[in-house]
Design goal:
Blueprint lengths: L2 E4 L6 E4 L2 E4 L4 E3 L5 E3 L2 E4 L11 E3 L11
Antiparallel strand pairs: 1-2, 3-6, 4-5, 6-7
């Protein structure tokens, strides 16, 4: 499965399936009923735009599925 990432150096978006999820603390339900995943997602390969290996909080990533 590809996730959508945004390079923090160039603000360009790209997709990758080469990532790892870690520090996964599960789903957090907020007072307004919204839910987020409390985890980090890291690229396993360098970013195609700046060459760095970025680490993101899961709730910082754009949803690859769109809105329902």
């Amino acid at each position: 499965m590809d996730l959508v990432f945004i390079c923090p150096e160039t603000n360009q978006t790209f997709k990758s399936a080469n990532f790892s999820v870690h520090d996964n603390k599960g789903i957090v339900v907020h007072s307004d009923g919204t839910k987020t995943l409390d985890a980090k997602v890291s690229l396993n390969e360098p970013c195609p735009y700046c060459g760095q290996k970025h680490v993101y909080k899961a709730d910082q990533l754009p949803c690859p599925f769109g809105s329902a």
